[in-house]
Specification:
By secondary structure, the chain is mainly α. Helix content is 72%, strand content 0%. The protein is built from four helices and no strands. The protein starts with 14 loop residues before the first helix and ends with a helix. Keywords: Cell membrane, Membrane, Transmembrane, Transmembrane helix. This is DUF3817 domain-containing protein. It is found in: Cell membrane.
Length: 116
């Protein structure tokens, strides 16, 4: 029995490329999550206690989040996520603790899909 063009799934990247993209995404999800928690601490210090000791954190988090976006989109392209799933995964880096949970869920999904 052969699949027709309408029922066949779109080809994905080779497993080794998916493995590399997944690793990069996982690392950046954790780094982004940690810097986001530091950003929350910085906001509490700055606005709650008028302390500017962590005033460098927003800039660093912004750049780390930008790299996270690139890694999330790279993985999404390689595993053929729909746009909605990609956008929700990208937004996860803006909500404290959510990047950790999404990293766990997306890793489980990709590992199951590609037998990693």
């Amino acid at each position: 029995m052969t699949e027709t063009a309408s029922t066949a799934s779109a080809p994905t990247a080779p497993v080794e490329k998916v493995r590399g993209a997944l690793l990069r995404y996982r690392v950046l999800a954790w780094i982004t999550g940690i810097w986001l928690l530091l950003l929350v601490a910085e906001l509490i210090l700055a606005y709650g206690f008028d302390n500017k000791a962590l005033d460098f954190v927003p800039i660093v988090h912004g750049w780390v989040y930008f790299v996270y976006l690139i890694m999330a989109v790279d993985l999404a392209i390689k595993v053929r996520w729909p746009a909605g799933k990609t956008i929700i995964t990208a937004i996860a880096g803006t909500i404290p603790f959510l990047s950790f949970w999404f990293e766990h869920k997306r890793t489980q999904e990709v590992k199951a899909q590609f037998n990693l």
